[in-house]
User: Fold these one by one.
Assistant:
Number 1:
Amino acid sequence: MSWYILLLAGLFEIGWAIGLEYSDGLTKPVPTLGTALALVVSMLLLAQAVKDLPIGTAYAVWTGIGAVGTASLGIVIFDEPATLFRLGFIGVIVVGIVGLHATSGGH
């Protein structure tokens, strides 16, 4: 169950990271509130997940999910470049996330 909680925490991390763009430097009240809410939920879920998962593994996976999701949405939503190298390095992060999960035991 902790892995599902960690996945959800990572999704909320993507939400607050993307929210930063929409909040315009935290100057727009509604996007700022959504960003802050997503940040708090993400942290609370991460805190729950680390009750059963090693902190190093959980933190690396959480940030990896956030990085992959945010970079991918940056390409799709904000028209950021989707170069072969960029996509390749996003793929490397995915491999790291999968590897950490596979070698963590008790998945």
Number 2:
Amino acid sequence: MLKLVGVTKTLGGQPVLRGVDLVIPQGKLTTIIGRSGEGKSVLLKHMIGLLQPDSGEVWVGGVEISRLRGQALNEVRKRFAMLFQGAALFDSLTVSENVAFPLREKLRMKGVDVTTRVEEMLEQVGLAGMGHKFPAELSGGMRKRAGLARALVMRPEIILFDEPTTGLDPFMAKSIHDLITSTQRKFGFTAVMVSHEIPEIFGISDYVAMLKQGKIALMASPAEFQQTTDPDIREFISVGGTVALPAAPSRC
């Protein structure tokens, strides 16, 4: 579904991506981890075409998007939705109006068709009957749910999640993770999530990829990932989430 080949990017004179090669499997949940400042969010922005690489290729399906502009790029972006860290809701709109916004602006839907789909999505994320409220009246977790409803309402093929549990307590973070995984399994979209939530991500992801020094150091299933012999990766996932890692295989 998504493929990056040799992607490089320098921002402010500082190399961020140094030759990223990454294949995101279709219909699966892949989580990208790494230390702060490694460029994980920058990587997401390349996937959706918000940033163009200095060199390399970004493929969405069979389309190479790194040099697309205008309407051609917009057509590809219709396949995506994105859930930002702060949900990025419009403060002046109700929850229902926020969720309906892309339907009206992008699909030009009107009337009962919009209402029906919005209510369906709010029910899916546990916000049934909350559509009349404004974002300021919602808790942090409820705003995240509203943001997810807006992402789902366009029925995208791909959803990008940029630190979806930032600022939430552990209980609410688990609730959002459970919601993401249940909706991904139900609707079958391809999900790419940036997260620091270790060890939780090992229980919800189909694949885990680590960005280290501008490249993908490892991508594997959670079970395989935790068997790594790379000392830097082992230190990161053990210190970051107090994961009890199996002993590294002997090199003797």
Number 3:
Amino acid sequence: MAQHYSTWDPDHVLLETLNEPEMRDRYRWWGAQAQIAAAIRAGAPRHTIIAAGARWSDDDDLVFQEPLRDPNIIYNFHFYEPHIFTHQGATWSEYYWHWLRGLPYPSTPESAEHVAALVPGDADRLQVIRYGYEHWDAARMEAEMKQAAEWANRRGVPLVCNEFGVYRNYSDPQDRAAWLRDVRTALEHNGIGWAMWDYSGSFGVVMKKDGKAVPDENVLKALGLK
């Protein structure tokens, strides 16, 4: 596959080892990614490679690994923390998420407790209560991005967050915009490139009305765009 795309302009085409690897063993993924990157490099010697940590490209697993032995690699992570807010109402992954409606951001014990009452299971309800006490706000986002940036700076490698976003259907529009603003601001403050997920889907920067894309002004403002 890499050889097939090796004739494409390397300034416009980058090759990723694997998007959101579903491998929970960090050591195993580290070895597998090294082999994949070597195969890409053999087929496409001029193209930049995108590499990421295990378990869906999260930042926790990015800072676990060490850089690959290749100078032309950009390291990437996805950021949806905390999932309990960004995926509230979603019907995939954690089953109890579909009970969540209007879970606020930033998190406070009082507001989380109100939403937790909608969740029937004790263990799941506890996760919502914990969210309220975990102080997810602009300062927390800054701390998260700082750790990722320091990992990259110590190793002298470039870093990008090429996915972050909030499921639109059941989150408060103002809270969704606040989360996007705080994440985007923290990324930029720490010198990390970014791309939001997605354009016109359920996490989108635009909404489709009568077949036309209508920009979400709250999201554009949160992203610093016009």
Number 4:
Amino acid sequence: MTASSTRRTAAVRSRFAAVGSIAVAGALILTGCGDQTDDSGSQSSGSKSAAPLADKLPQAIRDKGVIKVGSDIAYAPVEFKDGSGKTVGIDPDLAAAMGKQLGVTFQFENGTFDSLITGLRSKRYDIAMSAMTDTKDRQDGIDADTGKKVGEGVDFVDYFTAGVSIYTQKGKNTDIKTWSDLCGKKIVVQRGTVSEDLAKAEAKKCTGGKTIAIESFDNDQQAQTRLRAGGAAAGSSDFPVAAYAVKTSGGGNDFQLVGDQVEAAPYGIAVAKSNTQLRDALKAALDAIIANGEYDKVIKKWGVEDGAVKEAAVNGGK
């Protein structure tokens, strides 16, 4: 969903790293290190035992034992459904490790990326964790397209760094190396991401009567399908997502990365500004798993070491 957030606008997400993208299903309390999935496929993670940071959480969340997570679960390898329908990826694994520290379940609930902040604002979710780039616009509740304030804004607990990449069908459109090479061509992107914002900004720079045709989709998998069928010259996603698609789609025969990644920025866990206690508890949990090595295990598992951070930060995006 590395736009804005590099999955960065008030509704932008960017998803950097080396290669290795809503219904409440009920709380599942875990007693080990693994994750569990309920019958509907909602991801849960955490443990109520041996939770050294449980007292840092708001009492209401401690009582429920659940942190409801809004997420666009179609952004492999950050969060996606595996063959059995279980929610897996970088974010769910990090949430599982944090859940052990806090003694709660992180319950992932699927939604389109551009609706996550709204869901957080309406208290449908406690947090949004979805390769969402921490940006000043999002912190301040500013719509990047209009420059107008659309809400209170959110706070972020930053946990990863990512940039944006372009990819094409393998062996085709070899003249595309940079964003400026897209003038006169079509690109497919996910709606509400930094990729979409970059494409719009670049289209305004095109000369000679050319522009960039932009086709936006609800999720990145739809954009990939369109590109795979030859419906566009290129696609763009956060680097980990683009790299994962290049490695896995068609056994590595469908796509190729072109040019360098751009707009590197932090991914953040979004929290309502009024919920500072939850924000600070999440920061403490993230710092704890960085210190005890669980964070590095997750990062290495998914082959995204280049995007790792050394400590949690609050509102580090610009």
